[in-house]
User: What shape does this take?
Amino acid sequence: MKTSYLDLDGHWAVVVAYDYDVDREYDDIANMIESFGVSPKQTRHSLEILAAPNTGMTVTFPEVRMSLVMISRATSKDQLFNTIAHEMYHATCGIIRYYGREMCSEDAAYTMGELMRQVITNVAKTYR
Assistant: This one.
């Protein structure tokens, strides 16, 4: 499993976990998810979903201004970018909601744009 840390100017952090094998790294992945406060039951359900390709999960923790994004292995670059954009949208929603802004706003667009810039720089380039 690889991880990348995205920082929104010290105001919010996004931890992205990707390129993992749920069967081989089940305990490590479960521990990471549970360390963010997700219940063991919900973690097991999440791991069932994340074992399939082209899936993801985002959990936002407003009390510590942090989001956890899990991105499963992709079957193609197109699917990878689809999953990344989908999960960055969920992260953006949590961030924008915390700050009381509107989702249809420049604040949301710039937030998602910055998350996408960082995730492409740090995550997407590792896929062939």
User: Anything to note?
Assistant: The mean pLDDT is 93.
